[in-house]
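Suppose you are handed a protein chain with no further information: no name, no annotation, nothing but its sequence. What can you learn? This example shows the usual starting point.
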Amino acid sequence: MTKQNMWVAGFVAPLMIAILLLCAGSPNVMASNNDKASAATAAVKIDNFVFGPQTLTVPVGTTVTWTNSDDIPHTSVSTEGVFKSKVLDTDEKFSYTFTKAGTYPYYCTIHPKMTGTVVVQ
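A reasonable first move is to predict its three-dimensional structure. Written in structure tokens, the prediction is:
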């Protein structure tokens, strides 16, 4: 083997190993069986006497957070008694985690014409 061929072999082999390691990924970055997926979240904005979106579809286990962006108080109350917020002033939030599939209609007790629905699949 010539001196030039030995230099190329000595350079190429470590370069190939480095490329293979990069392609394989770092063990610190790869997910393991002990890692837990982050919980799903969704948001409903209360603004101008409207729940937005009016109908929200989420997977089971999702935490929905209502935020009152209006200048007056509102509530978010399940028509079936599943959840009930306190009176939310401007910028206050209420969260509920949906653990069962179903359709959950809700309304504002202060302004009953304000309605919304969470569909959990």
